[in-house]
Amino acid sequence: MPKKVDWMPTRDDDFFNFQGNLDGLVTANATPWGIPPADVTEINTLRATYEPLYHTSQNKTTRNQGDVLAHRRTRTKYEKRIRKLARNYLMYNPLLTKKDKSDLGLTIHDTEPSPSAPINDVPIIGLKGLGGGDIEVRCRVRGDQTRASMHSDANLVEYRFVTVQSDEAAPDAPEDCTKGSSQTKAKFVIKAGARNSGKRFYGFFRWLNNRRPRQEGPWTNVQTVVIG
Which residue in 14, 45, 174, 214 is a FRET match for 197, CA 20 to 30 A apart? Predict the structure, then answer.
């Protein structure tokens, strides 16, 4: 679920600028935007109460604890009223354009992930039997000569494999493999099991981005190694 991004400023100086701009635009456009006069008057009144308290609380040489507390309480009340006004008459009002909402400071940034880029490359695979039925897998992109590396547009390496006797034929396609999984790192170990030592491992690998929308790279040709 996308994380919610709040449009209400948190810093006092940012909120001061935000509320003044919003109040001015709401007052000037109340009629074309269909905002009732009573709601406009309430926002105007809260602004008139809030701004002197803001200025007093910002003066570190003359303010006292009561000044700071009065400012905080009034801002909290003011914020709640602005949210109500925005919810009722601004954010979902078809009479406001996207630019109107942006000018008001109500633009909520898109938090959906950007579409993943297509993946057209296959990983270069290195396999090594480690003994005990373990197989070390190193994946890399073409620009890296030796070190393991992930594709910049992928967040997973997906693989499918089968273990067979050394005289059995290799599978023709990933769909012919009975086992598989994915890994977040370019270097990892597949545990085929000690019982499969001496057998042959056949596997297919591809880059994968499982974020929306899902992007799958092409599968490699079959990769093989004798299981140690």
Answer: 174
Read off the pLDDT band of 1 (50, 70, 90).
very low
Domain map (residue ranges) of the chain = 12-104, 124-226
Between the CA of residue 206 and those of 29, 160, 176, 193, what are the distances in Å?
56, 9, 15, 23
d(CA 202, CA 175): 12
- Say yes or no to pLDDT of 164 above 80: yes
Per-residue model confidence as pLDDT tens digits over 3-41: 456 899 999 999 999 999 999 999 999 999 999 999 999
The interaxial angle of helices 12-33 and 37-58, nearest 10 deg, is 160
Question: What pTM was estimated for this model as a whole?
Answer: 0.52
CB 176 within 8 Å of CB 165: no
User: Is the distance from CB of 217 to CB of 206 less than 8 angstroms?
Assistant: yes
Report the candidate in 52, 29, 39, 32 with the shortest Cα–Cα distance to residue 82: 39
Q: According to the model, what pLDDT value does residue 2 have?
A: 45
Q: Residue 161 in contact with residue 202, Cβ under 8 Å?
A: yes
What distance in Å separates the CA atoms of residue 10 and residue 132, rounded to the nearest whole number? 58
**Residues forming beta bridges with residue 10, ordered by sequence position:** none
Could you tell me which CATH number the domain at 124-226 has? Answer: 2.60.40.10
Place of tokens 């297509």: 118
Question: What is d(CA 218, CA 154) in angstroms, rounded to the nearest whole number?
Answer: 12
Q: Kindly tell me if the per-residue pLDDT of 53 is higher than 60.
A: yes
